[in-house]
Amino acid sequence: MGGSGDLDAQLRAAMFAHLARVSAAHPDGVPSDVINSFRFADAPMRLIVQPGIRKPAQLDAALTIRTTWTPPGAAAPYADEVGPDGSLRYKWRGTDPNHPDNRALREAMRRQAPLAYFYPVARGVYQAIYPVYLVDEDQSAHEFGVDLGQYPNDEDDSAETPLDRRYTRRLTLQRLHQVLFRPKVLRAYESRCALCRLRHAPLLDAAHILPDHHPHGEPVVPNGLAMCKIHHAAYDADIIGIRPDRVVEVRQDILTEIDGPMLRHGLQEMHGAKMFLPRSGRDHPDPERLEERYVQFRAA
């Protein structure tokens, strides 16, 4: 038993290290073939499989789960969604509680084993979210509850009130949205800075137009802008602003400042430029959010 447990722990640790490497190299989402390039004990091991629950033969508990990509406007084959209590729900394989995949999920929940969750940002492209834990099962709804992050401590959980649990579940959902925000924004902008068109994804951020704490600061693409790290910092510092018509302005004192080539080419020459827009209109920055943020810039 001890050897089996050691193997399980070693495999999961190796998988998480692999996912950390490939996620850093693909901040706009990792292609499935890159995820499946994982090797353990010098042997290849696929992490993404059909239909979505992966339990290698040498393990008793599930290792990874995956949500199927659904094109915009199409019906999802599996309703991996948010439950009435605000938690993330992951559907069984079919409706048989004794299906091997469902037993593997149940065993992962019993052991409190950390899994990797692959959430699609495009067809064949995923955001790897890890570690995640299966924390409860609703057999009548054929689904498990998923928590993103540390497994709840039994002692702490016993002291929680229903309000505490609802708040914790809401935080789980918020974390999911935040994790998906960057790859979705970078993919919408074709992994280029909306201002200078820099195409190196590791040097790009997903900037919020309105911040997290704002009532309309949701982590959604219309509230996001793909920006290189220099322009993101300048935007947050109100050195540059973007008008509702998507034209860039540079603060007046910066325009008249004399410094090196970075200031001249990186900031001053942005003044009056039209920002780069996503191909899809549904991903364009929201003009009302831009206007509110621009008012803040003008007041700075």
From TrEMBL:
Family annotation (Pfam families): HNH_2 (PF13391)
Entry keyword Nuclease: yes
Domain of life: Bacteria
GO-annotated molecular function: endonuclease activity
Keywords assigned: Endonuclease, Hydrolase, Nuclease
Domain HNH nuclease: 193-242
Protein name stated in the entry: HNH endonuclease
Organism of provenance: Phytohabitans houttuyneae
